[in-house]
Amino acid sequence: MTASAARVPCTVVTGFLGAGKTTLIRHILENANGRRLALIVNEFGDIGIDGEILKGCGVDACPEENIVELANGCLCCTVADDFVPALDQILALEPKVDHIIIETSGLALPKPLVQAFQWPSVKSRVTVDGVVAVVDGPALAAGKVASDLDALQAQRQEDDSLDHDDPVEEVFEDQVACADLIILSKSDLLDAAGSARANAIISEHLSRAVKIVPTAQGKVDPSVLLGLGLAVEDDIENRKTHHDDELDHEHDDFDSFIIELPAISDPDALAKRVATAAEQENVLRVKGFVDVGGKPMRLLVQAVGPRVNHYYDRAWTAADDRRSRLVVIGLKGLNRAAIERILVS
Questions:
Q1: Considering Cα of 197, then 200, then 201, then 202, what sign does the dihedral take?
Q2: Residue 300: strand, helix, or coil
Q3: Which of 97, 258, 267, 337 lies 20 to 30 Å (CA to CA) from residue 286?
Q4: Cβ distance 189 to 183 under 8 Å?
């Protein structure tokens, strides 16, 4: 199921303390490209994300009043008490926000939070655009899931609300299992061998086709993360975790270009070609509008890796440039000619 245009999209950012979530989120706020953003920061005391850092960004796209801090402990354990009031506060803002980013605490499990989006009072207003897991590249390369395991243990001991006492390895596995995109942080500190080790560890815990994006200083084109349109709350049962039985700046590491297509006759066939291009080439995102011959409605195509959504979003108007154009985004070195051959074939 695709997300309704009437609902505000939310991106859930998960990952351990020190993985690089704050740096990533700050970069997104500073490169919002016209979006009006809001942020829910799940912080516990002095440990975890420092909301004041983000409030001090001075970014027009996300002013201080658009940042809500939840300091009552792990959000996945207090979601019933904390999440809906925070959501109410953000949705009452004027002007209305275009996108909400939710940063979980280091030990939070993303799945219980996503499941809250199935509640009738929540589902009618917001949708989970995607789940992004930030993982510490150098730590993984060294055989650890986090760079400071002592700090994680201190956070666990001080958070009275935490009702799951799992090994950090299991929390890591649950965070990765629920993700639609993996951000491998601090990649500038990895050599080729370290990068290979980190990617191998992540891949061991992936049961679905999920892209791993290496980053340095949190610099990722926001279009890679925002606007995925996955409606994750409708797909949550496919994310298997340990707790399933419990209730315009430069982005030098990325290439982006537009491929123009002739009018098509079979949307499903195009979706298969998009999925093939994502699997054969290093494509992260594909998005755009397509002209289907004989149809008055324009076809919206959205892909995250090989997972493709397509639906008719509205009728073409006289003001529209009725052309089929897909934006392709991926890691540096995309083979445009090869991708074009697959999509236009």
A1: positive
A2: strand
A3: 97
A4: no
Least Cα distance to 186 among 138, 144, 132 occurs for 138
Strand partners, 204: none
Q: Compute the CA torsion angle 185, 131, 35, 252 (nearest 10 deg).
A: 30
Q: Are 334 and 328 spatial neighbours (Cβ–Cβ below 8 Å)?
A: yes
- The tens digit of pLDDT for each residue in 202-251 reads 999 887 889 999 999 999 999 999 999 999 999 887 777 665 555 443 44
Integer distance in angstroms from the first to the last C-alpha of the chain? 28
DSSP 137: H
DSSP tally for the chain: helices H, then strands E: 12, 12
pTM for the structure as a whole: 0.75
Is the torsion defined by CA of 47, 45, 218, 117 positive or negative? positive
Q: Of the candidates 271, 254, 276, 249, which has an alpha carbon nearest to the alpha carbon of residue 339?
A: 276
- Dihedral of alpha carbons 265, 266, 269, 270, sign: positive
DSSP string, 71-122: -BS-HHHHHHHHHHHHHHHHHT-SSPPSEEEEEPPTT--HHHHHHHTTSHHH
